[in-house]
Every structure is written in structure tokens, then in C-alpha cells.
Write a structure and sequence with these properties.
The complex is a heterodimer of chains A (348) and B (629).
Chain A (H helix, E strand, L loop, with lengths): L1 H17 L2 H27 L9 E6 L3 H10 L3 E5 L3 H10 L4 E8 L2 E9 L3 H24 L20 H35 L1 H7 L4 H29 L7 H25 L3 H19 L6 H9 L7 H26 L4
Parallel strand pairs in A: 1-2, 1-3
Antiparallel strand pairs in A: 3-4
Helix pairs in contact in A: 1-8, 2-6, 3-5, 6-8, 6-9, 6-10, 6-11, 8-9, 9-10, 9-11, 9-12
Chain B lengths: L2 H34 L2 H23 L10 E4 L6 H7 L3 E4 L12 E3 L4 E3 L3 H23 L4 H4 L2 E8 L52 H11 L21 E2 L10 H8 L2 H19 L5 H5 L4 H27 L3 H24 L3 H24 L11 H10 L5 H24 L3 H4 L5 H10 L5 H10 L1 H15 L4 H27 L10 H19 L5 H4 L5 H7 L8 H26 L3 H26 L1
Parallel strand pairs in B: 1-2, 1-3
Antiparallel strand pairs in B: 3-4, 5-6
Helix pairs in contact in B: 1-10, 3-4, 6-7, 7-13, 8-10, 8-11, 8-12, 10-11, 11-12, 11-13, 11-14, 12-13, 14-18, 16-19, 17-20, 18-19, 19-22, 19-23, 19-24, 20-23, 23-24
The chains are: A alpha/beta (348), B mainly alpha (629).
């Protein structure tokens, strides 16, 4: 009985191919990935002075604590301090653009009050402010060390600075799960469309006259959509590996994706069978997928986290158990749907 | 009874009856869509929505989600002071301090003498995360100190000032931090007197946790502290604090409207849901020739489309108003979001008219959502940084939520392309709202050409279509600016010039390509090609003059803005101005004629003719930028 189901699955895939929707789907995924990368890379380069090379900031320092502060400022990479006698001369220099920022540091009541003036409303503002924050944090540590006798707890020593890029964590915990799960959601959506369209166009009647059971029809649609997701995810894994983001347990990741695809596609098919109007079905589907995925992220071993940890090899030796759990979940849901289909009944 | 009065009355009658039929169709659409939702679906939907609310609430209650939970493993003994740091940080997992397992099971091992780090990118990332976790731990420990002046010996007040010689200093916010121990997000309000800042125009920079927006600051702060767990933000946690301006040095942060942005994003969620049924409703008309009955009824296609769209537009505006009320936005927010909603619907309408099946429609709507969301969202991030942000109406919302004003010119600049763009899209869609297009299965690109052809009725219409493409060109070019402006100027300017040339050349010639497959199919001679090319160039040139509006918002002050709009004739001296006025006309006519010659042949010829056209255009732009820049 495998033949008619495969035929239906092939028909599903061929309509996708003829409409070139799958190309559009890949493009969308690429755009989303590029967009989120752009967002993070852009933000980090704007807000992390370490990644912005070649910006030399000159700071005018004035006030009665200026000597101590100046020493710290000069120690900072890509920062130079200039001492000014009075606030007025420092401000004048700032307005002429000779210095990028002014720090007015005064000692009062055992503390140092610093008034920082940064340029208003331009791209440099963010860089200057972040650099000021670095310098002033160092200054704070120096001052705090001098007062350590008054403190109950001593601050822990910081681990050494590492030359790590912030993109590492982003690539594995955001970008990779995004690329793995977008195809899953899209597959579910395809199933909803495919089933509701049979109702809308009345073509279900034709299928039902053919020598196939309703379970076969559902099988064919579920198989086609569920097979698409791991294939796309595999494509992205290869691309990421090519781009210098190697994934450690690719097979396990793909198995998780396949299991979730089966689960989500089953969900889509169930919803479409229960609510055969596309408007209602798509709405229900998107809300429930949002709820399901939003809800699971609260759990300790959520899908996003699982994929990320598999990819960076932060799983123990028991990881096959975890992957097996996902498979049981996906297959279980699918079996339930197959049992339920004759009871729901098609073609009402 | 005189003639003119009679005619006026009949015109009014026509308009009224048109309006009546629009309302009738709208009512019919509403009742039909509502009828789809039977009791079962309604209950399912209600359950789903309740679950969504519960999940959201749970996320709030448990302090957010950790996508990177236990990603890095730190070897640290139970008695080590660092053990608590590792336990507190969701991304770090504690393992026994076994040096033998370094690199295979643990990334960093903490020993009393020093830190041992494995040699891998992952280990370096782990160390970096560990470092910020220790820093955060120290900060919290200091907050619990009784001797405040020893724990936080430095109190910083951040203010912003103009760097131009002839202007007064406008302080964004000026206050001595009261306790200095509150983070930008924690917002204990002790620096509440910081709200007297006379922000001025750019003073949005002064928006901070102290200026009463405690709610926004709090969300930002809690996100910055780690529960959101998006790595890469760990080291720069302060940046999510909504632009803190006063307190301990760790609390000051660049002006970043995180809270307002998150709130503004709320406006987008309902749009993505509403366009789904709208697209379905449009496509439904086309399935099994169902729309035929409506088509033969004595109403115009535009009335049908207006009637079908009205309920959804009203719904979206209504939701927007409710959201605005909930998050504290004013009429400006609603007025800024309405054009986005309109464009969403317009694009979905065209998608519904072009798509062949529900599956295709799904992809079209997803593309629309993704594109429009990013177009609106990305620039708004830079609200307080650069005037480019104004290309997105969402920036107006952020301004509104921050309490910084919006001028009429800014409103026109942000929303203009959206209004005109929606109008053009509806126009195109209505053009194919006819039997021969609605009920046939054709690929999307052919449908698009059909839609263009339905608007070509003579040579003059070619110029009109060129001019009508301006809003889309505008949107595409501004998006290119927004995406490229993070790159250094040496790289971004040439890239931008090519992108601009490509966008404009395609916009000027694609309807010529359509025309040669439609009304001008029998007249593919080179004379006709040149004539149409020149006309199209002229139309584009006239339409481009509209971009002079950028002068109002000071975009040309920006290097990139100048590069993109030089050919629009935004020039300085009169002599150069006159030259620049006529030179673009010649340019547009020439390049479009090149593309037009290719368009008379087949698709390959058209695409290969676009290459020299784009090259000439880009070279011209480069020449203008380098002589004037």
C-alpha cells in the first residue's frame, strides 16, 4: 500500500517545485538569517568599542580629580586625555571639536562626581559613550581598591580578557536554531495550505474516488512536508560549516529537526482537518506553534537549546537519549493522528 | 434644469451609490468572514490565545528564556568563590575542576592560582561570558554593601551637547545621581530629578531611566541582565538599558531606545495575523470562479476591492488604537502605524491576486511580513543616532513613545512612500481584477507583467508608470542606505551607488519590458524602443523631483544621503544646480533607452542590456559624488 501514498507525496512536492515556492522559501530563510546577523553585527560594531578599530577618542579632563582620572584615561587603548584648567576652557575645546568628550571630575563627600559630556546625535556618540564607560569603570575599580578597607566583601578578580568575538554565541544559539526551525514551521504551514486547499477546491472528492484511503492521503501530505525540513536544515548546516561555523553532531541535529518537523506537520494536518477553512486553520496553526515553541523555551531542555548544545558539543554522553526522546515525541504524535483520521473523517 | 447642475447631481449620485456598494460589500465580507469561525474554531482559538497569554506570563514570572543555557562548561570547585558566579549565570554550567578534561568536557578550569582555558574558539567565548558573569556578580555584591561611597566611589552623569560653535549647549539631562547604585534598568528612581532635561531636538538622547519611563527601562534592564540569554549582548548588557545617563560608570549607556522599540514592535504582531485571512479572502474569490458572480454585478472592480479591504483596514486601525492606548502611544503612533497597515494590506492584495495556490500565497505573505517588518524595524533602531532612521514610520512611534516630538515634514517623509506605495499596489492589483487574470493559473512574474500592462494604454502612460515607481525606488534605496550605513564609508558608497543605479534602471525599464509583450508587441522597432525609453526616463526624472523632500529632514547632510540623492538635483550653487537639473534628465533618458533596446527582444537580451545601463548610471553617480563630494 506504499505506492499511492508515495504518489501523493510526489504530487505535493511537484506542485511546490512548479510554483518555485521552495526557492522563495529558501530566500526568505536566507533573508531572515542575514537580517538577524546584520542586526547583531551592526549593533555589536556600534556598541562594542573593541570591534571598532581606528576610532581614536580624545577626552578633555578637568576638575580637582582630573589627575587620577587622566592617568586611567591614558592607560586605555585608543583613548587620549587632555587636561584643562577650567570647565569653561574644556567646553570651549569641545565646542570647537578639539576633543570628543569632556569629563568634569570633582571630589565631594568621599566620592568622585564625574559629569561626562558626549557629542549629541551622531554615530560617534555611541562609540564615545561606550569608550567613556570603559574608562570610567576602570577608574571606579581603582578608586574602589583604595577604599577596600570599608568594604565587607572584596570583589572577585576578573578572568583574563579573551579575544573572543561575540558572534560565536550568536551563531550557535540564535542563527543555527533559527535556520533549523524556520523550515519546520514552513513545512507545517505548507501542510495546512495543502489540506485546506483540497477542501476549498473540492479536489478531495476526486482523491476519495481513487483507490486510496483517507489515511493514505494524510500520509502522503505529511511525508512530503516533513521530509522537506531536514533537507533544508542540512543545506544550512553545510553552508554554515562552509562559512566557518562547524556543527559538531550534524546527524543528531538533523534527527531532532526531522522529529520536530514530523510533530509540527502533524499538528498542522490535525488543525487543517478539524478547521478546514484556511483562514481559521492558518490562524490556529500559527498561534499554536508560537505557543508551543514559546512555551518550550521555558523548559531546561528546549529544542533551541538542544540544537545549540548539540552543535557546540556541550552535551554529555547521554545525548542519544535526548535525540531519541524527540523522535518518540514526533512519531507518537504522527501515530495518534493516523489513528484519529478515520474518526475525524474527511470530506464533510 | 441646466446641464452642469444636472451633471453634478448625477456625479454625486454615482459617488453615493458607489459608496453604498462599497459599504454593502464590506458588510458582506465581514459577515462571511465571521461566519467561517464556527463554535469549534472559536473555542480552539480562545484556548490557543489563553495558552499564549499563560506562556507569556510564565516567561515574565520565571525571568525569561535562556536559549544558551549551559552552553559553556566551567570547571570550578564547590568551595571556590567563583562557584556561585557559575551557578547564577544561565549560560554557564559547573563541572568538577578536572584539568585533564580541559578541552573535552570543560572549556575553562578555575584553580586558586589561575584560570586555565582550552585552546578553541568555544573556550574563548566561554571565557568572555565568564568574565561578564563575574563582573555582574561583583556589581551585585557591591549593591549589597552598606558603605555606599566605598562601593560606588564614582558617580557619573552623562549629558549630550552639540559640537557646533555657534549653538548653545543643550544638555540632555543634568542631575547628580542620588545614590549611584541603581542600574539603568533597575530604575529605583533615586535619580528621578534627572528628568528636567530640556532634550531639544536631538535630546532624545537624553531619554533615560530617570525620565519617568521606568517601565521601559525595567524591561530593558532585565533583558540586559541575562535572562534573555542572547549572547553577544552579555558583555554590553548596559546597552539594553534604554540609555541610562546617570549612576555608576557601569550604568551609563549609549542612547538606545530598546524599551520603546520593543513596544513599537507590538504594533506589528496583529498585522501579520490579519493579512492571513485577508489574503485567503482574496484568493478564495479566485478559486473555482467564485468571484464571477461579484464581477458580473453592477459594481466596479475598485468598489469590490475597496469593500473587501475596508473591514480589514478598520480592524487593523482599531487594533492599533487599542495597542497605542495600552502602551502609552498617542495619535502620532496611530497615524504612523496606519500607513504601514495599509501597505501590508496592499501588498497582500497584490499577492492574493498573483498567487496560484494557498501554498504560494503563504510564501508571498511571509515574504511581505519579513520584508516590511525589517524595513520598518531596522532603521528605527537608530532613532537617536541618525536622521536616516526616519525612513521608517516606526521611528515616529519611537519618538512618540519617548515623548520627543514629530514634525509634519518628518511625518510626510516617513509615511509618504507608504501611502503612495499602497495606492500604486492597489492600482496594479485592481488592474488584474478581471476575469481573464483572476481565474487563470499563470506564474507570478507573468501576472506582474500583466498587471503592468493593464496600466499601459499609450506612450504617455509609460512615463506615468515610471513616475509611479518612485515610492518603491525610494523604499528600496533607503533600505540599501540603512543596511549599508554600518559599513565604512569607503566600502558603502561605491556599493550604494551600484545598488541605486540597479534599482532605478530596473524600475524605469521593467514596464517597458512588459509593454513590449503587451500593447507594444507589434511595434518592436528601435525607434519605438528609443522613444519609449526616453519617455520613461522623463517620467522618472519628474517623479524623482519629489525626493527633494529629503531636504526637509536634513538627510543630505549625511554622506550616504548625498550619495543616494545627488541625481535628484539637491545641489548647492545655482550654476551647478541648473546643470544638475538637466544632466539627470539626459542620463535617465539614455540609460533607459539602452535597457529598452534590450527589452524589445527576449528576457536574456533585456537582462544583458540592463548591465551597461546600470554601469553608465553608476559611473555618472560616481562622477557626481566625487566632483561635488
Amino acid at each position: 500500500m506504499a505506492e499511492p501514498r508515495l504518489t501523493i507525496a510526489r504530487r505535493e512536492l511537484s506542485t511546490l517545485r512548479s510554483e518555485k515556492t521552495i526557492v522563495l522559501a529558501l530566500l526568505i530563510q536566507l533573508f531572515i538569517a542575514a537580517f538577524s546577523s546584520f542586526l547583531v553585527v551592526g549593533l555589536v560594531s556600534l556598541y562594542d568599542p573593541g570591534s571598532v578599530e581606528g576610532y581614536e577618542t580624545t577626552v578633555g579632563v578637568t576638575g580637582d580629580a582630573s589627575e587620577d582620572l587622566l592617568r586611567v584615561v591614558d592607560d586605555q587603548a585608543s583613548m587620549t586625555g587632555v587636561a584643562y584648567d577650567s570647565q569653561a576652557t574644556a567646553r570651549a575645546a569641545f565646542e570647537r571639536g578639539e576633543v570628543d568628550a569632556v569629563l568634569l571630575a570633582d571630589r565631594r563627600a568621599g566620592r568622585v562626581f564625574v559629569t561626562a559630556t558626549a557629542p549629541d546625535s551622531n554615530v560617534r556618540t555611541t562609540i564615545v559613550v561606550v569608550q567613556l564607560r570603559e574608562a570610567l569603570s576602570t577608574f571606579e575599580r581603582v578608586e574602589r581598591d583604595q577604599r577596600s578597607g570599608y568594604l565587607a566583601a572584596t570583589p572577585l578578580g576578573l578572568p583574563p580578557r579573551s579575544g573572543s568575538t561575540p558572534y560565536y554565541g550568536f551563531s550557535y544559539t540564535v542563527l543555527l536554531p533559527l535556520l533549523c526551525f524556520l523550515p519546520v514551521f514552513i513545512s507545517g504551514s505548507i501542510t495546512v495550505d495543502s489540506v485546506t486547499e483540497e477542501f476549498e477546491r473540492g479536489t478531495l472528492e476526486l482523491l476519495r474516488v481513487a483507490p486510496v484511503s483517507t489515511v493514505d492521503i494524510v500520509d502522503g501530505k505529511v511525508w512530503a512536508a516533513a521530509a522537506l525540513a531536514p533537507v533544508q536544515a542540512g543545506l544550512w548546516l553545510a553552508l554554515l560549516g562552509f562559512n566557518g561555523t562547524p556543527v559538531r553532531h550534524p546527524l543528531a541535529v538533523l534527527l531532532v529537526v526531522a522529529a520536530l518537523a514530523l510533530l509540527v506537520v502533524t499538528l498542522g494536518a490535525t488543525i487543517a482537518l478539524l478547521a478546514p477553512d484556511r483562514r481559521a486553520a492558518q490562524f490556529l496553526y500559527s498561534v499554536s506553534v508560537l505557543v508551543a515553541f514559546g512555551g518550550t523555551t521555558l523548559l531546561p531542555l528546549n529544542p533551541v537549546n538542544t540544537v545549540a548544545r548539540l552543535a557546540v558539543d556541550s552535551v554529555g554522553a547521554t545525548y542519544p537519549l535526548l535525540v531519541g526522546g524527540y523522535l518518540v515525541l514526533g512519531v507518537g504524535a504522527y501515530v495518534l493522528l493516523r489513528r484519529g483520521v478515520p474518526r475525524i473523517g474527511l470530506g464533510a | 434644469m441646466s446641464g452642469p447642475r444636472e451633471r453634478l447631481r448625477s456625479a454625486v449620485d454615482d459617488a453615493l451609490s458607489g459608496l453604498r456598494s462599497v459599504v454593502r460589500i464590506a458588510r458582506w465580507e465581514t459577515s462571511r468572514s465571521a461566519g467561517v469561525v464556527d463554535r469549534q474554531t472559536a473555542i480552539l482559538g480562545l484556548v490557543a490565545l489563553l495558552l499564549a497569554g499563560a506562556v507569556g506570563g510564565a516567561a515574565m514570572a520565571t525571568g525569561g528564556v535562556a536559549l544558551d543555557r549551559d552552553v559553556y562548561r566551567i570547571g570550578v570547585g564547590d568551595d571556590s568563590p567563583y562557584h556561585e558566579v557559575v551557578r547564577e549565570s544561565p549560560a554557564l554550567a559547573a563541572r568538577p575542576p578536572d584539568l585533564d578534561r580541559l578541552g573535552r568536557g570543560v572549556e575553562v578550569v578555575v584553580r586558586p592560582d589561575r584560570f586555565y582555558v582550552a585552546d578553541s574558539t568555544k573556550a574563548r567565548a566561554a571565557l568572555s561570558t565568564f568574565r561578564s558573569a563575574v563582573r555582574r556578580h561583583n556589581l551585585n555584591a557591591m549593591r549589597n554593601e552598606r558603605n555606599e561611597s566605598a562601593a560606588f566611589p564614582v558617580v557619573v552623569t552623562l549629558r549630550y551637547a552639540e559640537q557646533t560653535p555657534d549653538e548653545d549647549l543643550t544638555a540632555g539631562s543634568g542631575a547628580a545621581g542620588g545614590s549611584g547604585s541603581d542600574s539603568g534598568g533597575a530604575g529605583t528612581g533615586s535619580d528621578g530629578d534627572g528628568s528636567d532635561g530640556d532634550g531639544g531636538d536631538g535630546g532624545g538622547a537624553g531619554f533615560d531611566a530617570g525620565s519617568g519611563s521606568g517601565g521601559a527601562g525595567a524591561t530593558g534592564g532585565s533583558a540586559g541582565d541575562g535572562p534573555l540569554g542572547v549572547p553577544g549582548f552579555g558583555g554590553v548588557g548596559g546597552l539594553l538599558g534604554g540609555g541610562g545617563s546617570s549612576g555608576s560608570p557601569a550604568d551609563i549607556s549609549p542612547p538606545f531606545p530598546f524599551g520603546a522599540l520593543v513596544l513599537a514592535f507590538v504594533f506589528f504582531i496583529p498585522m501579520n495575523f490579519v493579512i492571513q485571512p485577508y489574503g485567503s479572502s482574496i484568493l478564495n474569490e479566485r478559486i473555482n470562479r467564485r468571484g464571477e458572480l461579484l464581477l458580473v454585478a453592477p459594481v466596479s472592480p475598485s468598489a469590490i476591492v475597496a469593500g473587501k479591504t475596508l473591514p480589514y483596514l478598520a480592524l487593523l486601525v482599531g487594533i492599533t488604537a487599542v495597542v497605542a492606548l495600552a502602551i502609552g502611544g498617542g495619535p502620532v503612533s496611530i497615524a504612523a502605524v496606519a500607513p504601514i497597515a495599509t501597505l501590508y494590506l496592499a501588498a497582500t492584495f497584490v499577492g492574493g491576486m498573483f498567487a496560484r495556490s494557498f501554498k504560494e500565497l503563504t510564501f508571498v505573505t511571509v515574504s511581505i511580513s519579513v520584508f516590511l517588518t525589517s524595513y520598518a524595524f531596522v532603521p528605527a533602531i537608530f532613532t537617536n543616532v541618525t536622521p536616516i532612521a526616519l525612513i521608517s514610520p516606526l521611528t515616529l512611534v519611537v519618538h512618540d513613545l519617548q515623548g520627543t516630538g514629530v514634525t509634519a515634514a518628518q511625518y510626510a517623509f516617513s509615511t509618504g512612500p507608504f501611502y503612495v506605495g499602497s495606492a500604486v499596489l492597489f492600482l496594479l492589483g485592481v488592474g488584474v481584477y478581471r476575469e481573464e487574470d483572476m481565474f487563470t493559473q499563470r506564474p507570478v512574474p507573468l501576472k506582474f507583467l500583466d498587471a503592468l500592462n493593464s496600466r499601459i494604454s499609450g506612450r504617455r502612460s509609460v512615463a506615468v508608470l515610471s513616475a509611479l515607481s518612485i515610492p518603491f525606488v525610494f523604499i528600496a534605496e533607503l533600505l540599501a542606505i540603512a543596511v549599508l550605513f554600518v559599513l565604512p564609508v569607503e566600502v558603502s558608497i561605491p556599493l550604494l551607488l551600484v545598488a541605486v543605479a540597479a534599482v532605478e534602471e530596473v524600475a524605469k525599464s521593467v514596464h517597458l519590458y512588459a509593454g513590449f509583450r503587451g500593447p507594444f508587441a507589434g511595434r518592436r522597432g528601435w525607434k519605438m524602443a528609443l522613444a519609449l525609453g526616453a519617455l520613461s526616463g522623463l517620467g522618472f526624472f519628474l517623479g524623482e523631483k519629489l525626493t527633494a523632500i529629503v531636504q526637509f529632514v536634513g538627510l543630505p547632510n549625511l554622506t550616504l544621503g548625498r550619495a543616494a540623492f545627488t541625481s535628484a538635483g539637491v545641489a548647492a550653487t545655482p550654476a551647478v544646480g541648473l546643470l544638475l537639473l538637466l544632466a539627470p534628465l539626459a542620463l535617465h533618458a539614455t540609460t533607459t533607452s539602452i535597457a529598452s533596446l534590450g527589452a524589445t527582444r527576449d528576457r536574456t537580451a533585456y537582462l544583458s542590456a540592463l548591465v551597461p545601463a546600470i554601469a553608465v548610471h553608476a559611473a555618472y553617480n560616481l562622477a557626481v559624488v566625487s566632483t561635488l563630494g
